[in-house]
């Protein structure tokens, strides 16, 4: 059977003419197509009550944490800076519960961009709220002006990591984020860095947890970029075991 992959959904909070001003639950189509092409069945999980998280996780074979709003600094004990973007605490609460349950039930996780940041915060880490004002070493473009389907900077991959087994020692990625991992959670280990030293990928330190979290957006680079399809193929394979 094709594994069932839960994809965290977002909610359109602002009125959009295409939907006659109606709020919409959604996920970027690249995630759906990436999972389908890799042999999985995607299931978009709409934002809901945290107490429903256990039921969702019990039914799926893997959890895909997607991009979106900034994670509220409330969850890592900081006040919001003047440069933080829009947050969505209801989504944060629900996805924190999904992560907690996925870890408890030992379900595989693939986390992308905000997903990696939320995973890190849920497990006890923290974030740079805005790189331009908090990360003095920044020297490459992390909010690219080029179309998302193209790569913009490189990532150096740690030898011996699961990520290294997928893509080798270096790959080129796209980049659209103004936040990043600051203090890495104890249950996670960095396995990829940007040229200016930011953590771009993490994996679980516990061999019983199957986790790969990345800062870039592979879903916008497929189907053209073969190495970006690998992330979905690997995730579906991990969820099939």
UniProtKB/TrEMBL annotation:
Classification via InterPro entries: Class_I_gatase-like (IPR029062), Peptidase_C26 (IPR011697), PuuD-like (IPR044668)
CDD domains reported for this sequence: GATase1_2
Family matches, as PANTHER family: GLUTAMINE AMIDOTRANSFERASE PB2B2.05-RELATED (PTHR43235:SF1)
Protein name: Glutamine amidotransferase
Gene Ontology cellular component annotations, sorted alphabetically: cytosol
Species, as recorded: Trichococcus ilyis
GO molecular function terms listed in the Swiss-Prot or TrEMBL record: gamma-glutamyl-gamma-aminobutyrate hydrolase activity
Entry keywords, A to Z: Glutamine amidotransferase
PROSITE patterns attached to this UniProt entry: GATASE_TYPE_1
GO BP annotation list: polyamine catabolic process
Classification of source organism: Bacteria, Bacillati, Bacillota, Bacilli, Lactobacillales
């Amino acid at each position: 059977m094709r594994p069932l992959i839960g994809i965290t959904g977002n909610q359109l909070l602002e009125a959009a003419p295409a939907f006659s001003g109606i709020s919409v639950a959604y996920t970027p189509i690249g995630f759906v197509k990436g999972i389908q092409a890799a042999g999985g069945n995607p299931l978009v999980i709409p934002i809901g009550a945290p107490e429903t998280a256990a039921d969702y996780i019990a039914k799926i074979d893997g959890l895909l944490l997607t991009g979106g709003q900034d994670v509220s600094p409330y969850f890592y004990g900081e006040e919001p800076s003047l440069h933080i973007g829009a947050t969505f605490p209801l989504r944060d609460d629900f996805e924190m519960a999904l992560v907690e349950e996925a870890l408890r039930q030992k379900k595989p996780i693939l986390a992308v961009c905000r997903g990696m940041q939320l995973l890190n915060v849920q497990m006890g880490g923290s974030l740079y709220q805005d790189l331009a004002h908090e990360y003095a070493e920044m020297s490459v473009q992390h909010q690219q002006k080029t179309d998302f389907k193209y790569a913009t900077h490189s990532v150096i991959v740690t030898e011996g990591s699961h990520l290294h087994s997928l893509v080798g020692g270096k790959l080129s990625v796209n980049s659209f984020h103004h936040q990043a991992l600051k203090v890495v959670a104890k249950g996670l280990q960095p396995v990829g860095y940007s040229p200016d030293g930011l953590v771009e990928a993490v994996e679980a330190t516990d061999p019983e947890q199957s986790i790969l979290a990345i800062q870039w957006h592979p879903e916008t680079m497929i189907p053209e970029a073969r190495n970006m399809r690998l992330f979905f193929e690997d995730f579906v394979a991990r969820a099939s075991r």
